[in-house]
Amino acid sequence: MPLVLDRDETILEISGDRLVILGPHEVDQHHDVVRTAGTRRTVAVATASSVETPEDADQVNRDGVAPRTTRSFEHQRFADRRALVAEEELTSRRRRRGRVVAGVVLVSGAGLALSASPLLRVDEVRIVGLHSLNPQVVRDAVDVSDHPSMLTIKVAEIETRLNALPLVHGARVWKQWPDQLVVEISERFPVATAKSAGGWSILDQRGEVLETRQARPELPQFDLTGPIDPNDPGVRDLLQVAIGSSPRLRQQIDSLTLRGDGVEIRLR
Q1: Considering only CA atoms, which of 113, 94, 171 is closest in space to residue 138?
Q2: Could you give the count of Cα atoms lying within 13 Å of 15 in the half-sphere of its Cβ?
Q3: Fewest CB within 10 angstroms: 74, 101, 242, 259, which?
Q4: What is the pLDDT of residue 127?
């Protein structure tokens, strides 16, 4: 419905959310027809979503393209800002990735250079704890004749080879920087003997057979009624007595026999 402003006799017509300026008017006597002497212009009714001026309406009429509203302009500015931030983050991630790759290459190259350096080659093997075992047997099991690098040599593999030797009870290996390996050997030693089908079996501190001889050795004899079993409680009791005896007393013991809940010692 047209609205007439008395001041300048301009007709304003509200159409939806648009305000149409009709300009100076002429109304016939029946108020049925409105004739405007000016140019029809449209402005937006002031809302939270958009504001359009009469000049904007003229621009639409001339170019056929709606002008950008204040809200759409702000949206575009925020979108441009988000795109710029995303591009900066992508560039930063690429730079960080490049620095990480360069660091890995640098460390790898330094590691290769150090492993090849003669300053970190194994040059000496020091053996401790030997009593009866031949040192050359231990050196052959360690096997560092090609002087491997201290950085790459694996002490666990050396310990496995040493523990497989018949007279080794336990072995421990560690690195003494810059060029030395230390090998500590705990030997198996004979503590007793027992009669077996093949002769006389020599037993170590764990009750395992070290070797078998035809003649009886000068060791305490275990009087056993069955086969030699290191896990047998009776064998373990005899071992405790033999190991717990002093070396001088052990030389005087002729035999050890289980009697009831104890052990009988017979001297020579």
Answers
A1: 171
A2: 10
A3: 259
A4: 95
| Mean confidence (pLDDT) of the chain | 75
Query: 18: Cβ–Cβ under 8 A, 6 or more apart, which residues?
Result: 42, 43, 44, 45
pLDDT tens digits, 38-59: 444 444 444 434 444 445 444 5
DSSP the chain: -EEEETTTTEEEEEETTEEEEEEEEEE-TTS--EEESS--EEEE---SS----HHHHHHHHHHSSPPPPHHHHHHHHHHHHHHHHHHHHHHHHHHHHHHHHHHHHHHHHHHHHHHT-GGGB--EEEEES-SSS-HHHHHHHH--TT--BTTT--HHHHHHHHHTSTTEEEEEEEEETTTEEEEEEEE----EEEEETTEEEEE-TTS-EEEEESSPPSSPEEE-SS---TT-HHHHHHHHHHHHS-HHHHHHEEEEEEETTEEEEEE-
